[in-house]
Amino acid sequence: MRHTDKLFKLLALILLMTLYTDAGITGNWVTYDDKSGKKKSIVKITQRGNTLSGKIIKMFTYPPDTVCTPCKGKLHNKKVLGMTIFSNLTLKDGKWKGGKILDPENGKWYTCEMWEEGSKLKVRGYILMFFRTQIWKRH
Question: Quick one: which H or E segment has residue 20?
Answer without folding.
Answer: helix 3-20
